[in-house]
Amino acid sequence: MVAFWLGTFVVPGRIADLAQMVERDGWAGLALTDSQSLGGDTFAALAVAAQVTERITLATGATNPATRHPAVVASAIATVQVESRGRAWLGIARGDSAMAYIGRAPLPLSEFGTGLAQIQTLLRGQTVDFGGTESRLQWLAQQSVAKVPLAVAATGPKVIELAARVADAITFSVGAEPQRLRPAIALARETRAAAGLPPLRLGAYINAVAHPEVDVARAQVRGRMGVYARFSTMDRRVMSALPAADRAVAEELVRTYDMQSHAATGARHEAALDDDFVDRFGIVGPSADVAQRLTEIVKLGLDHVVIVGHSRNTPPEVLAESSRRFGQEVIPMVDDAIS
Questions:
Q1: Alpha carbon separation from 266 to 85, 193, 222, 258, 319 (Å, rounded)
Q2: DSSP state of 328
Q3: Which neighbouring-strand residues pair with 8?
Q4: Dihedral sign, CA of 255, 7, 335, 300?
Q5: Distance from first CA to last CA of the chain, Å, rounded?
């Protein structure tokens, strides 16, 4: 059975209601973006969510080892693991808006790899050498909880290869088309097998909105889709491999992207995302159509899907309506199709 998680931003004051809504509507998890300038603190929010839910996975979607030191990341997510009685999940990436809003670029691959290895070591209860100082989570040894899974959000081949060697899972960020997902999945599996490691858990971030009117669904998904479509512009090999039409969209995103309107509806760069691109890179429309396409990509071998459909400025009532529709209509149809 595939696990569907709702991915969204942290809005302080609404965290408990959000978490309870996600659990009530039938989602398997909640993934909260870690971007300190655009939303509240992710780890604090996950701790709140742990206290008001019983079942759902509580994930970062995603944090990074730069704005937060690897030891801080490990301690924070391990705390969520204890408070949630084993329901934490660490989604992690090189950093996007969290870095941009403090004037920094995403982490270089070598630094990112070092951070991942350090976090993994600490989460296993082992010792890391930080510049000659030995460090471990001393308090963790007194807790009876499983190690938190570490999942890398990955788009380009180098990050996929790194993640396959270091992480417990990969959550691909390459869009919803099977022809984009298949080579990413194959590369992850081949790299993992070559390293002599057990199989990875595989998932995907998918821009999806279910609504009876496809034009409404497109309008609702564009703000958040700009973020994920832009990731394809950050790797030359990914960019060069895009079909001509998609490369033109990506180049227009580079030209017009407004970081001040990151993940927000109404951003000027939304104009680059024409209907054809939205329909292919994302999944929009009536529930049955959304479920059919999700079933197709889940059958590629995914065990978790993070639905990042709505913008950070989506009204709460719109998000609530969409959550109910997904939980009560889309997810059951996918479950039936793959059972």
A1: 40, 44, 9, 11, 17
A2: I
A3: 32
A4: positive
A5: 7
Using a cut of 0.70, tell me whether the model's pTM lies above it. Answer: yes
Which residue type, as a one-letter code, is found at position 27?
Answer: W
SS (H, E, C) 161-186: HHHHHHCCEEEECCCCCHHHHHHHHH
If DSSP codes are grouped into helix, strand and coil, which group holds residue 107? coil
Q: Give the E-state strand segments of the chain in sequence order.
A: 3-8, 29-32, 57-63, 88-92, 128-130, 133-135, 150-154, 169-172, 201-206, 208-210, 283-285, 304-307
Return d(Cα 227, Cα 131) in angstroms, integer: 35
User: What phi, psi does 209 have (nearest 5°)?
Assistant: -140, 125
Torsion of CA 44, 45, 51, 56, to 10 degrees: -130
CA atoms within 13 Å, Cβ hemisphere of 38: 22
Per-residue pLDDT of the chain (339 residues; tens, 9 = 90+): 899 999 999 999 999 999 999 999 999 999 999 999 999 999 999 999 999 999 999 999 999 999 999 999 999 999 999 999 999 999 999 998 999 999 999 999 999 999 999 999 999 999 999 999 999 999 999 999 999 999 999 999 999 999 999 999 999 999 999 999 999 999 999 999 999 999 999 999 999 999 999 999 999 999 999 999 888 777 777 777 778 888 888 888 888 898 888 888 988 889 899 999 999 999 999 999 999 999 999 999 999 999 999 999 999 999 999 999 999 999 999 999 998
Q: CA–CA separation, 21 vs 9, rounded Å?
A: 15
> What values do phi and psi take at 150, rounded to 5?
-110, 120
Instruction: Tell me how far apart the alpha carbons of residues 41 and 34 are, in angstroms, rounded to a whole number.
Output: 7
